[in-house]
Design brief:
Largest sheet: 4 strands, parallel
Oligomer: single chain
CATH class: Alpha Beta
Helix content: 55-70%
Strand content: 15-25%
Radius of gyration: 14 Å
Number of domains: 1
Number of helices: 5
Order of helices and strands: HEHEHEHEH
């Protein structure tokens, strides 16, 4: 079952990202619920509960853990972005916004398709 926030508020889960980046992101995007965890094991547990739209994984996460995050994220329809943990560049924000918009568009398309099936 989805949590109420995952149904109503776009959610992003940040994994092993720098605190300054998280603070800046939360300030710049107040309409997005930005959750954070310190490592991949905690992210695996949170993904199933929070059902984020996007998972942003720091580049310090080992490839094996990243592959696991991609698999778990796919199970809830979330996209995974890998980036430098301290990146506050406009490109980093653009990548996150792009992934979030794409996820929202897929969700709307699925809702429209579901509405068509129910008619």
């Amino acid at each position: 079952m989805s949590s109420p926030s995952s149904e109503l508020i776009p959610t992003i889960l940040f994994v092993a990202m720098d605190r300054a980046f998280l603070d800046a992101f939360r300030k710049d995007f107040p309409g997005v619920l930005a959750l954070s965890v310190a490592h991949a094991a905690a992210a695996r547990e949170r993904i199933a509960v929070t059902k984020p739209f996007v998972v942003v994984a720091a580049s310090v996460i080992p490839k094996e853990d990243l592959a696991d995050l991609v698999e778990v994220s796919a199970g809830v329809g979330a996209d995974v972005i890998r980036m430098a943990g301290e990146s506050t560049s406009p490109i980093a924000y653009f990548r996150i916004k792009k992934a979030l918009i794409e996820r929202l568009e897929r969700r709307r398309a699925a809702e429209r398709a579901q509405g068509t099936e129910n008619q």
